[in-house]
Design a protein that fits this description.
By secondary structure, the protein is mostly helical. Helices cover about 75% and strands about 0% of the residues.
């Protein structure tokens, strides 16, 4: 039993670490978005020039920050939740809610998104789909891959969250820290 608990703890740390690396790495795209958007504005209004590809690149970066970092956000309790009852619960009550939510809400939903979007994304890759705009980016298939990335990171983090809460309920882990304590 100790070996299983150790293996599950390692899995939780591995998934959390993966989403941490993804989130912190892709967060740098927000700086790139600011720089590219500033450049687009200066070129358009200062020099009466513009490139569709440059404008579309901001959309691509935003999609990857928003979608591929969803698991990172879940790890840090950054998603919206209704806290009417949750905040008043004991750590054990919260663990039950999180375990139930992960197993019966989060994982089925993102499993369906992954399953339902797979052919859509695969078709885009097969066509090497590009922008419909003249001069746009020829990588729409990469953009659509953000759907798969979102579902995968959320599923992985849901698995981590479920295991973590189960281990807590079994008395093998301390309660989760507050999200404000984890930022940084």
């Amino acid at each position: 039993m100790r070996g299983l608990i150790r293996a599950l703890s390692l899995l939780v740390r591995g998934i959390d670490g993966l989403n941490q690396v993804i989130g912190r790495t892709l967060a740098w795209l927000t700086l790139a978005m600011v720089v590219v958007t500033f450049t687009v504005v200066v070129l358009r209004y200062g020099f009466n020039m513009g490139w569709i590809a440059m404008q579309e690149s901001v959309m691509y970066m935003h999609a990857f920050v928003f979608m591929a970092c969803a698991g990172y956000t879940l790890r840090h309790n950054g998603h919206v939740r209704v806290d009417v009852f949750y905040n008043k619960m004991t750590d054990r009550g919260r663990a039950f809610v999180n375990l139930f939510g992960s197993l019966f809400l989060l994982m089925p939903m993102f499993g369906y998104i992954l399953w339902g979007s797979w052919d859509y994304v695969a078709s885009s890759w097969a066509l090497m789909e590009g922008s419909v705009e003249v001069g746009g980016l020829p990588y729409v298939y990469v953009l659509k891959t953000a759907i798969i990335a979102m579902a995968a990171t959320m599923l992985l983090q849901g698995i981590s969250q479920a295991i973590r809460n189960l281990l807590f309920l079994l008395g093998e882990l301390p309660p989760e820290r507050n999200a404000a304590d984890e930022v940084g």
